[in-house]
Design goal:
This protein is mostly beta strands and 136 residues long. The chain has one helix and ten strands, in the order E-E-E-E-E-H-E-E-E-E-E. It has one helix spanning 66-69, and strands at 2-3, 6-15, 18-28, 34-43, 56-60, 76-81, 99-101, 104-108, 120-127, 132-135. A hairpin with a 5-residue loop joins strand 3 and strand 4 (34-43). The radius of gyration is 18 Å and the shape is elongated.
Length: 136
Amino acid sequence: MINNGVLMHVANETIEGRDLRFRSSEYTDSTFRPHVQLDCCVWGGWLDRDNPDALGDYETTADFNIAQIGCSTPIAIECATTAGAPYTSTGETFVAGKNCDLAGLACKNSDNPPNGCSDYKVKYCVDDLRSGTFYI
């Protein structure tokens, strides 16, 4: 994949039961030294704080502790229904700023009449120590 003139490589692997995502960028910096930026993150398990209640379903980052997420600053998030469907497939409206971004996912029943919100789950990808810039 090419992104703004930078050759990007993305790979997803499962190693020892852990889902990993690798992203590398090959480019030349201002000193014309070619190098590769390697980002690696480790996906944690699915988290489901609650079931939908009278207000909706809230799976926000602030609702989980560091041990559940895996670190204090996750670098990616994935959201789905507890049945496994992509969150975007439900057609539901989500709270601005909490629509499967790093703040999490929040769905208000009042924004989704007549049936309200589905039950959602989230998982976070945390930075791995193998990330860094490597000069070629």
